[in-house]
Specification:
five-stranded mixed β-sheet, alpha+beta, DNA polymerase, domain 1, 14 helices, 37% helix, 19% strand, Alpha-Beta Plaits, 13 strands, DNA-binding, globular, Dna Ligase, domain 1
DNA sequence: TCTGGGGTCCTAGGACCC
DNA sequence: TCTGGGGTCCTAGGACCC
């Protein structure tokens, strides 16, 4: 049996742990750059605010209902997530951290009553971290996801826990669920399924497996089998190695000039190199891209990207910056208002295993670069990110993301530690 | 004025091998 | 009249996830 533990309204719950006054009130969390609402409390959902609603489109609603809006605080969410996972780790040796707010636990072979056990898990997480969770338990991941959703919505189970096999008539329930509710079915697949008269989960479960394979491919075939309690998606206990690293941002204000874009791209390249080193990886390839806004239909649009192969794999910030800027020069066109840029490293490998270049005569530089990067990382770790930097990163913050409503990094910066006063 | 960021997997088609 | 059979690797694009 597999349990899916999912934190309820995770980002909102993290904020509420440190601002209990937000409890019971409508709360929304914004995407980076304070763009859209990407996490919602139950109260704001009830007011009809959909996932992904642009923030600037609902000022009246916010005022009228006194909705509390916050910028994303990923330092906080990341740390709270780590704590939740740590508590969950006490309950089973085999678990897969699936996302920042979800975790699969392998409960097969447990002799206890799973409902009781799961209630204990939920209670312990709440007590240890302040975060409320819902738990769905079933023979496959797909069904565990579904059970979790039903528990959360209060359709079945005891409010926060649902063990699939305790349902008297699961098929009756499946028949009431639209196929789009399933993990792995988005609107695209959902519409195609509806066209062949598969509109609820039961219909999909009973669909002809050969036909599904032929028309929709192996992904949906696996899903149908999982609905029939045949596990096809294994638990991944060891996180697989990263396959790519992406660093990109929308700008706080549109950028038109090359110098400003150069500064932004330098910062993204620097961040990418830091990510490489922190995961002990290096890259053989760098891709740099720039976009105008897809929403500015009245203005000329331009999207371009360039992929550059390096002579040999590297994790050196200076080399990645030089490469990225050379790429930028080639794709930059004047006369556009750029909204976003980024660096993609699509071809990663473990550091120390790279194939050296046959023709490079300065390969002795490698130890030097390594020492420099170690010092750089140590200084920036001790004194804060960007304490020392490459000149090309510049000093202007004009393009930095907007994050005007961000709460303090309560758990990751000493200056932000909450202070408790006892009267 | 204002619309996120970071990932994975699958498939089809092209290029190549013997 | 008539021109094989069986592979691998890479890439771009689409679909999906949180």
């Amino acid at each position: 049996m597999i349990a899916l533990v999912d934190c309820n309204n995770f980002y909102v719950s993290c904020e509420r742990v440190f601002q209990p006054s937000l409890e019971g009130k409508p709360v929304g969390i914004l995407s980076n750059n304070d763009g859209c609402i990407i996490a919602r409390s139950e109260e704001i959902k009830k007011l009809g605010v959909a996932m992904g609603t642009p923030y600037f489109k609902i000022p009246d609603l916010i005022k009228q209902h006194n909705i509390k809006i916050l910028s994303s605080n990923y330092a906080l969410y990341g740390d709270m997530s780590r704590r939740v996972m740590q508590v969950l780790g006490r309950f089973t040796p085999t678990m897969e951290v699936y996302s920042i707010d979800e975790c699969f636990l392998d409960l097969s072979g447990f002799s206890q009553d799973l409902t009781t056990y799961s209630n204990t898990i939920a209670k312990t997480v709440k007590q240890g971290t302040g975060i409320p969770v819902s738990i769905g338990i079933a023979p496959t991941k797909t069904l565990a996801k579904l059970a979790n959703k039903l528990a959360k919505k209060g359709i079945a189970g005891n409010g926060s826990v649902l063990v699939w096999n305790t349902l008297a008539e699961p098929d009756k329930l499946l028949a009431t669920l639209p196929v789009k509710e399933l993990w792995g079915i988005s609107s695209g697949l959902g519409k195609r399924l509806n066209r062949i008269r598969i509109d609820n989960v039961l219909a999909l479960k009973q669909a002809n497996i050969q036909l599904i394979r032929k028309q929709f491919g192996v992904v949906l075939e696996r899903m149908v089998r999982e609905l029939n309690e045949i596990p096809c998606i294994p638990l991944e206990m060891i996180a697989p190695k990263r396959k790519q690293i992406l660093t990109s941002r929308s700008f706080g204000t549109r950028l038109s000039t090359l110098p400003e874009l150069r500064a932004a791209v330098s910062v993204f390249a620097t961040r990418s190199a830091e990510k490489l080193r922190s995961q002990n990886l290096c890259t053989q390839t760098l891709c740099v891209f720039i976009h105008t806004s897809p929403f500015a239909l009245d203005k000329p649009s331009y999207n371009n990207a360039i992929t550059i192969s390096l002579d040999q794999p590297t994790q050196d910030t200076g080399l990645l910056i030089r490469t990225a800027l050379a790429g930028l020069e080639r794709i930059y066109r004047p006369g556009y208002e750029y909204q976003r840029a980024g660096i993609l490293l699509p071809d990663l490998m473990p550091n120390g295993m790279q194939q050296l270049s046959l023709f490079q005569d300065d390969s002795n530089d490698n130890p030097k670069s390594e020492r420099l990067m170690t010092v750089l990382d140590a200084i920036n770790h001790a004194h804060g990110r960007h304490s020392i930097r490459y000149a090309s990163q510049g000093l202007s913050a004009r393009w930095q993301m907007r994050q005007q409503l961000k709460s303090p990094a309560y758990t990751t910066r000493w200056e932000c530690l909450p202070i408790v006063t006892i009267n």
